[in-house]
């Protein structure tokens, strides 16, 4: 452990280095061990804490994806999304997220700006919030329903057409949403344990469910 690493993550350094060494199989093994040790009966989080798979996926897949988005667009909203991801996964903030956030706070604390928008930017410029919220609700429900049915073995095209019809959508719109989600969160395996399943999301190519 170098001094620089300890300066970045403190007491979390050992766990962070372990996450970065893990393969998918390592994460899966740690997940089963955690289930046996804690008696956890649900995916992700609970009274026993956050599952190893949740933390591993967040640190090695989700946060790097957000970093790429932020470095490409400079949209500060992505920093807040990363902060939320770290909170949910009980992880420390990576430097790419912590540094701009601290810089923004220094501007506020130093009385450099009167408005939050001057520091962070407007969160949804040019967007009708009512319409956006409505479409998000429809999209989330439709995509999750399609994923669930297809993961249970239903034929992809038939399922997308049925879900689209039930939600008042075109097949083309439903197909776009579905494959966009699959590209962002490829689903390659389902973990079974004591009557519940945790849908595993990895950065590896889809095993064929999207074809």
Please give a structural write-up.
The chain is mostly helical and 211 residues long. The chain has ten helices and four strands. It has helices spanning 3-9, 13-21, 24-38, 52-73, 77-89, 95-109, 116-120, 129-151, 156-166, 171-184, and strands at 45-46, 49-50, 187-193, 196-201. The strands form two sheets. Strands 1-2 form a two-stranded antiparallel sheet. It has a two-stranded antiparallel ribbon with strand order 3-4. The chain starts with a helix and ends in a 10-residue tail after the last strand. The model is unreliable at 187-211 (pLDDT under 50).
What series of H and E elements makes up the topology?
HHHEEHHHHHHHEE
Largest sheet: 2 strands, antiparallel
Query: Percent range for helical residues?
Result: 55-70%
Q: Class by helix and strand content?
A: mainly alpha
Q: Please state the CA-atom Rg, rounded to the nearest Å.
A: 20 Å
Low-confidence stretches: 187-211
Give the oligomer, counting copies of the same chain as homo and different chains as hetero: single chain
Alpha plus pi helix count = 10
Q: Could you tell me the mean pLDDT?
A: 79
> Count the strands?
4
How would you write the strand order of the largest sheet?
A: 1-2
| Strand content bin | 5-15%
Task: Identify the overall geometry.
Answer: flat
Distance between the termini: 44 Å
């Amino acid at each position: 452990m170098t001094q620089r690493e300890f300066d970045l993550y403190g007491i979390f350094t050992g766990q962070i280095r372990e996450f970065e060494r893990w393969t998918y199989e390592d994460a899966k093994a740690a997940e089963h061990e955690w289930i046996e040790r804690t008696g956890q009966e649900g995916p992700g989080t609970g009274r026993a804490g956050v599952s190893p798979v949740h933390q591993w996926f967040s640190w090695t897949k989700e946060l790097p994806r957000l970093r790429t988005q932020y470095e490409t667009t400079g949209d500060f909203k992505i920093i807040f999304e990363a902060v939320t991801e770290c909170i949910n996964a009980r992880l420390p903030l990576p430097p790419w997220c912590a540094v701009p956030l601290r810089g923004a706070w220094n501007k506020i604390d130093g009385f450099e700006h009167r408005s939050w928008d001057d520091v962070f930017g407007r969160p949804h410029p040019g967007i009708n919030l009512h319409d956006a919220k409505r479409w998000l609700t429809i999209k989330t429900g439709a995509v999750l329903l399609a994923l669930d049915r297809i993961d249970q073995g239903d034929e992809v095209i038939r399922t997308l057409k049925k879900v689209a019809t039930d939600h008042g959508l075109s097949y083309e719109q439903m197909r776009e949403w579905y494959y966009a989600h699959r590209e962002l969160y490829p689903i390659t395996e389902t973990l079974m344990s004591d009557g519940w399943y945790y849908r595993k999301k990895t950065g590896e190519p889809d095993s064929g469910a999207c074809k």
